[in-house]
Amino acid sequence: MFVVRNQGPRCLDTSALQYLPNIILLVASNWDESDGSDCDLMSLPKCREEPVLPSEKIVIERMEESGVLIDVNVKNAMIASSRDLALWPLPKELGIPCLASSALTLPWWKYADERGALLPSHYETVQIMQMLQMERGAKVLLIGPRGSWWTELILHLGASEIQIIEADDERREFLENNWIDRGLDILSHDLGCRVEFFGIDRVKISEIELNSECWDRILITGACQELPRRLLRRLSQGGVGIVSVGPEGASMIRAITPDDEGGLHVESVTMWANDELDPRLFKNITGTPSNGGLSDLQLRAEIGESSRENSWIGIGDHSLRDRAGPVRLLEAMDQLWVSMGIVNDSTDLDVVMADRLFRMGNVMQNIGMFDYAAEHFGASFKLRPSAESATMIGWNFGIQGDDDEAMAWCRRAVETDSHLGDPWNDIGALLLANQKVEEAMSWFRAAINAERSLSPGHPWSNMARAHLMQRNSRAAFFAAQQAIIHMPEDAELLMLLEELGSDLC
Predict the structure, then answer these.
(1) What tens digit of pLDDT does each residue of 99-138 get?
(2) Rounded distance between C-alpha atoms, residue 60 and residue 72, angstroms
């Protein structure tokens, strides 16, 4: 499933070693001869549980506990709706329980490469809905619905009128039919809300200004090249507009409110790496031509008719699309993937989805959401078992203090693929933490000599710690030297080398 590139060793900064001209460094005992045969894999515990993706209800509860979800009305609306019901159907042969509650962007439309064809996650959905500050009886203009989920949420938040602008005729027809098929037309009637679907001509700014039309809430989901001030001036007093402004993939969400003097108060809120607003829509709401790229019709002509499976494969083409949150979250997915040197060029859907779940697990791990991370890794492992995903599950259990389950998943990783060095190292680290030094060193040696590793410096660093615990400074110094080759900016290692070097001198 995963291929690891050899990143190549970095040059060692020898400034820390300049005071050791006469020391002959000795290799730590037979580190280069171990194949893991002296490691007792069968003595390790077996997995008690397999992490799976949680329900949407649990995701909502977690966001409330973490302080992301603070508006009780938004919470109730989220509970009353379901992201799962808005998804483009997943191929029957690929069953991933609770996929809708994952942090992945998922398709609501068969052409996943089109603008607005991906369904936002719960995280950015909660943020956007809270920014809207919905009030009962609000008249809402939604430009670029991104499926029916957000429309349903706005309905539950008490809107009296929702005008939906979808540029593409085929998509608009699909959304209207889906609204009826799910009985949302009956629900909207019962809740006293008029829901209407329109094309791009509905938002010609010159006609809107001529008719003096206003809305209480305006939500534009595609990134705009500039703030559409003329449209946003059609906000009623006390109204709220939400729009992202900036280049595709790096736009900033702006919250707009009218002031008492007829101007607009603009507040920059957070990053939203969404795709560009349809150029035709941008021209209509601003009166200014867009310098955007291909239209959706041109793009569709290029990619041809997509199957259900291809729509799901396409979600992995733009890793940062539709990610609302801190810049750290936006950057994590790609930066971690590059640093780990992992590539996946498969077009098999199960491989693609396992890959996506694994990547998102790394994002969740990077921002400290360890339960959620383990669940994404678990879903990836269940779909396509790999030593990488099993290792990451073990790491997340370990960081939460469950050493037995951490070791069990590292065992599972070794049993899945013994050529990956990282689980060998992690088992050794757990043993070392329990003062089992000699036993731990066997696992570190096996990790050092493994065919591949996501973090080749770690077993050397741990080996240095083990030798220090045995008061073998020379061997510790050698191991630290090897570690620093792979981790040249590790301040702790550099300090250790300096201390050991001084002692040996």
Answers:
(1) 999 988 899 998 888 889 989 889 889 999 999 999 999 9
(2) 11
Phi, psi (degrees; rounded to nearest 5) at 489: -105, 10
Residues 301-315 have pLDDT tens digits of: 555 555 677 788 877
Q: How many domains does the chain have?
A: 1
At 106, which CATH number?
Answer: 3.40.50.150
pLDDT at residue 305, as a whole number: 55
The answer to whether 37 touches 445, Cβ cutoff 8 Å, is no
Contact between residue 487 and residue 457 where contact means Cβ atoms under 8 Å apart = yes
CA distance 118 to 290: 22
Asked if residue 135 is part of any domain, the answer here is yes
Residue 445 and residue 378: Cα distance in Å, rounded?
28
323, two tokens: 């990610």
Q: What's the pTM?
A: 0.84
DSSP state of 319: T
**Whole domain around residue 232: which residue ranges?**
70-303
3-state secondary structure of 137: coil
Report helix, strand or coil for 410: helix
